[in-house]
Amino acid sequence: MSDKLRDILSSWEKGRNVLLYGPPATGKTRLISELFQILKSPQESDEGIMLDPDDANTPFSRPEQAIPIPKPVKVVWTTFHQSYGYEDFVLGLRPEMTGSGTKLKPFAGVFLDAALELSDNTSEYNSVVIFIDEINRGNAARIFGEFMTFLDFDYRRDGRVALPLPLRQLNYIDGHSEEIYRAEGQEAKIPFGFTFAKHIYIVATMNSVDRAAVPIDSALARRFDRIEMRPNLSVLAQKWGLDESLLLIPIDDNWQNLSPLEAAYLLLDRLNLAIAADLGPEFELGHGLLTQLTTSNSTENVIWKALAKAWDEVIYPQLEDRYSGRPEQLIELLRVDTPPLSGSYAWTLRTTLGSSIRARTLTPVCVSELQLEEIKRSFRWLTR
Predict the structure, then answer these.
(1) Domain range for 320
(2) pLDDT digits over 5-16, tens only?
(3) pTM assigned to the model
(4) Residue 106, beta-bridge partner list
(5) How far apart are CA 75 and CA 125, in angstroms?
(6) What's the sign of the alpha-carbon dihedral 332, 334, 339, 344?
(7) Domain end: 228, 256, 273, which one?
């Protein structure tokens, strides 16, 4: 189990929700997908050994991975987006046709349904984990509404100050609410003064770069333990079999000898250093952008072409987005004014037809369509 997964479980054990944040392609969604599967189908622990003297064939085995929340666990996945609202997450009113006309019927959203699940005496579950991908793609403060309070475990059932649910949208008769439709077709009624169930946990992801996303407000953010997901070049080195301690620093004498994987590693390292210094570390490029460069039978030339394709499709578009409105900084980053002394170079300044006037704007180029030697020379030079 990775250190990040242990951090999530540790936060849950302390009664805290978790927010994973960082640039794209740093493994946020992959990590919570792995956690999702662990909760659905517990895996063996990587610590400890169990002995079964009655099993002659396999007497030794690993114990089940310890999960510090009550089991069985119900797992729910949702993704916030710009049209996602309080009605989807907490409580919504939807029209229902009856013999006497149309009336509004309450439907439980993801968060309220989790509380109703754990308050149902017939439920097989003892805790619920809600996975929220892209929490800042929606207006999270509006989506949670007054239920933001119940992100704090102190205000739930068995907490220091257990508060009743503030569901003023519901009609109450004889101490119980009207019937509420639940996610899987059941119906439930909420007693007056109902308190929010304790064992509901949230793990959410947040893209730190997305300019179209809604910022998480401080009242919501402080109710999460924040775990930063940073670009990790060691992931690439391990995947590609590179010894980081032996990587050459590209200088005049050796830059033309870099292998494609060495060039890809050093390229991402240089780009991220420049981006962090100029824009901040939250704008760096994730290592996941390059994890698919190799297969078991890839030759060096195939890897060079794959690097060029990754550049055209994912890396350069992100650079354009980060340096939008700042062409000089992008020109400097690509070393357009200081190309190799000999041979063609992928990135050049645009010129007008029929004259030698040079403009301070980049010539459009599809690197993957260039000759192989130019691809090699360009990426190797860009690592310096």
Answers:
(1) 233-382
(2) 889 999 999 999
(3) 0.83
(4) 93
(5) 10
(6) negative
(7) 228
